[in-house]
Amino acid sequence: MVGFSVCSSSLYAKDLTPQEVKTIVDQQFKPLLTQYNIPGLAVGVTLNGQHYFVNYGVSSKQTRQAVSSHTLFELGSVSKTFNATLAGYAQAEGVLSFADHPAQYFPELKNTAVNRATILNLGTYTAGGFPLQFPDQIVQHQDMLNYFQTWQPKNQIGTQRQYSNPSIGLMGYLTALAMKISYSELLEKTLFPALGLSESFIHVPERQMSQYAWGYKENQALRVSAGMFDAQAYGVKSSSEDMLKFLDAQINPQQLKQPLRRAIENTHVGYFKVGTMTQGLGWEQYPYPVKLETLLDGNSTQMALESHPVTAIRSPKIALASTLFNKTGSTNGFGAYAAFIPQHKIGIVMLANTNFPNEARIRASYQVVEELLKRH
Known about the structure:
Order of helices and strands: EHEEEHHHEHHEEEHEHHEEEHHEEEEEH
CATH class of the largest domain: Alpha Beta
Number of domains: 2
Largest sheet: 10 strands, antiparallel
Low-confidence stretches: 4-13
Mean pLDDT: 95
Shape: globular
Number of strands: 17
Strand order of the largest sheet: 1-3-2-17-16-15-12-11-10-14
Distance between the termini: 28 Å
Oligomer: single chain
Radius of gyration: 20 Å
CATH superfamily of the largest domain: DD-peptidase/beta-lactamase superfamily
């Protein structure tokens, strides 16, 4: 079951037909369906403002409903890019600064080790070494509070990057405290509408449940379960239609009104060098052109699970040279990847209802982008 479509909102010349794009996407993604037993996959490409959608398979093995550009997938850690955008929005509104410390908004953290870190450290995983996940016993607000009050850093703040849901999750939590509205409400009632996203949710409403795909792990149907800071770290559900709108905002933030423009641009600033990768807020950056191997290294299991030394960028600024931004995401039953290159007006999103290796997602997406840029 394969479908494709195109829609346009651009004044640019359009050299590539939907069929040409579909052929390029098919070459890279179609073999993955069998290889990784993927029930459904949605690929979206934005090129010079024109949107292309190529869809495969089903959103539910039970109903056999075909995947479309409106099917909702769990984004996993791609959700962190919305967390970062919201923090950037709060800073643009003047209600928060990335240089602030947690206790300014969360007084219970006064005189704690975590309060020595800044909001920027939390968002760039350089706060001293938080783990990837909260311990299993952290389920209630008081558990979370006790955890942060007793946490001790493994290394000096600002010297190591340790990818972490509790770390960036706390940034999102502090942003909501600063804005005096719940995090989910800020996303669903402020940020998503401001970006024109009508198919993006933390809590999927009843009217949209028929579009919400089931994820699969070893043929078992499942969806993400609640967890501490789940909304902030991995809780967004979205469609390829909405994700291309989000990528268009990244590619051309100049078209946005303030403070949204500044919010997006805040996530395009590089703060720490981690090998060949530059860590921003939410997005990870690479000078483009970039070798596939470099992208794979930057998105490897080692990069996610291990601590890596960083070099602070002395004068952080928006990436002005040709830059590829990307982010992977997974939940138990879903896999996602998003990448864009503003200078080439191109972006790609891949959403699947099974969690298959990052390497395969990135390799296929990279080859599609390279081929499109070659032909365009």
